[in-house]
Amino acid sequence: MAHIGIVGGGLMGCATALNLMERGHSVTILERDAGGLPASVGNAGILAVPEIDPLARVDMLLSVPKWLLDPLGPLTLRWQDLPALTPWLVRLLLSARPGKVAEGRAALLTLMKTAEADHAHLGALAGISGHIRDTGALTVFDSTAARDKAFAHETENAKLLGCNVEKLDAEEARRRVPALQGAFAGAVFNDGYKTFEYPLTLLRRLQAALRERATLLDATVSSVAQAESGIVVRTEGGREFTFDKLAITSGVWSRRFVADLGLKVLLETERGYNTTFMNPSTTLEMPVFFSEHGFVATPFENALRIGGAVELASPEAPANYRRAAAMRRKMRRYVPDLQEEGGTEWMGRRPSTPDSLPVISLHPRDPRIAFAFGHGHVGLTLSATTGRHVARLLSGETDAALAPFSIARFQ
Ligand SMILES: Cc1cc2nc3c(=O)[nH]c(=O)nc-3n(C[C@H](O)[C@H](O)[C@H](O)COP(=O)(O)OP(=O)(O)OC[C@H]3O[C@@H](n4cnc5c(N)ncnc54)[C@H](O)[C@@H]3O)c2cc1C
Known about the structure:
Number of strands: 21
Shape: globular
Number of helices: 12
Helix content: 25-40%
Structural class: alpha/beta
Distance between the termini: 30 Å
CATH superfamily of the largest domain: D-Amino Acid Oxidase, subunit A, domain 2
CATH class of the largest domain: Alpha Beta
Bound molecules: flavin-adenine dinucleotide
Low-confidence stretches: none
């Protein structure tokens, strides 16, 4: 059994750690801000198993010019960051070729098929149960043409996943979610979506389980290096650790460690914004997607979270919270009773690859090192599955089904 270091204690780090410990390894997690609010905490809280479509597709690219015209719309680009983003954007365009999309879809389907069972297992490892609610989700549309197109596509995906999709008129959608009093043309209900109790609670409970049984250190990792004796990790505080093996699970910040280890990756942030109302005056019976506007509203036990959108920008660029306000404003068209005051705004960084496939991979030349990052929009959904696979890889198992997620595709 090995002593394994893990850089980053978000969802990927925690899920990897618990799965490694199940296999008898000892684990040290280095996390620079264990009380912080990374993507793993502020996400929309949805187990999004039906989302098997890569982002880069011809239909998506055709919508880009229209979206970019609205500075607070579903997709924005921070133009001063364009030079740094260009290699990622070029690869995104190449990933939209139909053959690539089909390959990406098949690969994501493989991961999604076990996502729910993997979360049940991860919960059991941490002593958590009943944390995923069987809600389904509704997507509302401004035109019946858009609703019908989405229904046809979701039905096709549902056949692969074994879930059910219904086409609803506005009246039936309103019967299921009465707060939707504004005007819209119709909706699609998909029972393949589920809702986590609350993302912050989930991460804190995973971290608490690790504090009890492993070492979770408050430390900012400054560099990693390969040595004959092991993998050497140095921290900003001047400490040095040598591990038998190492997993890099630091979200978008993983890219500096990939470079330390002599490899390349295209990893950028799709930043997202939201507002959370605690003890909200509006109740939704299930998550409601406003996909034509690029955001979603998720009801939790004592909270309502409204947000989404994609802002392509450098990770450290200042936040523009007018995006969070714009989504609240848009939601009032559909839910006129949505409160104006009292919400907490947040910005988070989705670590994203241009082909929408996460990196779940060993180092091609050093099997002591694993990578788990780049899950973009579906990192909560795929965290438990990723943790299970990384633990298998670091325990010496191989799996041809993981080939599409190899970091080798960027070398
Ligand atoms: C607005 C929004 C909504 C979303 N909604 C959903 C959803 O409903 N469903 C879904 O499946 N996914 C959703 N996601 C995506 C999901 O949240 C992310 O893909 C996922 O949380 C990524 O987890 P991670 O552990 O890879 O990264 P992170 O959560 O970013 O964690 C990385 C960790 O590494 C630590 N770290 C970084 N550098 C260092 C260092 N040098 N030393 C030590 N530690 C370091 C950071 O502090 C952080 O804790 C959403 C994301 C956003 C932004």
